[in-house]
């Protein structure tokens, strides 16, 4: 007899699929809990209203999970909810309660809005950003010219995200320059404590290439040892990331 091939998945494949599904569910649950934690930090309301909002958020995250798994109906509904939300937020609520919306918009450099290829829509969004005072006078992101496309800025942004998206910064004053440096050092140390090695991380290591070989002569040595090279590369990476962080985060000219 010739053994027939089973049309079903093999046990290892089924186990791998189950593991992937479990990981996805764990990621969604972690993301949902983080969103609720941020919500509780940002919104001071009665327990009943907070419960209602949390329940709504739970439904949104379940819809998001289904959409990301390819459920067509969920994708359509998620698009509809976002569409309705943007219209309400930007063109009804922002007109009726501008200061409440500006309170959220001022610390940020981006905002949910409709996009399109027509010039009129771009003009509408420009007017909306002005109306919301987007990114003006906030404590998180400066109004200086910084490029999110620059690797050093992306890394600085990643460090900053460890703190700012877990706290309510809408009413916080700008840090002093000393406080800003202290925050950077704390976030840098936190990153290292997690086991991230800057000089061995490709995106970060590229920033430190200029340090290879250039510091050995200042020590009176003909060349760098491997240990010296690693230290010099890390120091150069940190120098460039701090420079980007300093430009990214505003500071106030005040004493502590």
Structural notes for this entry:
The radius of gyration is 24 Å and the shape is globular. The chain is built from nine helices and no strands. Helix 1 (11-42) runs antiparallel to helix 2 (47-68), helix 6 crosses helix 7 and helix 6 crosses helix 9 (226-248). The longest helix has 32 residues, at 11-42. It has a domain at 138-256. By secondary structure, it is mostly helical.
Key descriptive features of the protein:
256 residues; mainly alpha; disordered N terminus
Topology of helices and strands:
Blueprint: H1 11-42, H2 47-68, H3 72-96, H4 98-105, H5 119-132, H6 151-164, H7 177-193, H8 202-205, H9 226-248
Helix pairs in contact: 1-2, 2-3, 3-4, 6-7, 6-9, 7-9
Shape summary: globular
Order of helices and strands: HHHHHHHHH
* Separate helix tally: 9
Distance between the termini: 86 Å
Strand segment count: 0
Uncertain spans: 1-7, 216-220
Cα Rg: 24 Å
The fraction of residues in strands falls at under 5%
Secondary-structure content class: mainly alpha
Summarize the structure.
The chain is mostly helical.
């Amino acid at each position: 007899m010739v053994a027939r091939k089973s049309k079903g998945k093999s046990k290892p494949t089924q186990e791998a699929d189950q593991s992937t599904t479990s990981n996805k569910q764990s990621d969604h649950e972690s993301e949902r809990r983080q969103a609720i934690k941020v919500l509780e930090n940002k919104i001071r309301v009665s327990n009943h209203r907070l419960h209602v909002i949390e329940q709504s958020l739970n439904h949104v995250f379940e819809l998001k999970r289904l959409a990301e798994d390819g459920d067509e109906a969920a994708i359509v509904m998620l698009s509809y909810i976002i569409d309705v939300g943007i219209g309400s937020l930007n063109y009804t609520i922002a007109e009726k309660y501008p200061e409440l919306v500006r309170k959220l918009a001022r610390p940020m450099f981006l905002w949910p809005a409709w996009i399109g290829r027509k010039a009129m829509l771009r003009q509408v969004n420009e007017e909306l950003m002005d109306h919301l005072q987007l990114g003006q006078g906030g404590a998180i992101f400066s109004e200086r010219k910084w490029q999110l496309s620059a690797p050093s800025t992306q890394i600085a942004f990643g460090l900053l995200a460890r703190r700012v998206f877990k706290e309510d910064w809408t009413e916080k004053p700008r840090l002093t320059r000393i406080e800003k440096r202290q925050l950077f050092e704390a976030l840098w140390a936190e990153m290292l404590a997690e086991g991230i090695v800057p000089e061995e991380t490709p995106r970060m290591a590229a920033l430190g290439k200029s340090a290879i070989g250039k510091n050995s002569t200042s020590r009176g040595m003909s060349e760098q040892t491997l240990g010296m090279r690693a230290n010099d590369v890390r120091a150069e990476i940190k120098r460039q990331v701090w420079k980007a962080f300093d430009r990214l985060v505003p500071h106030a000219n005040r004493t502590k």
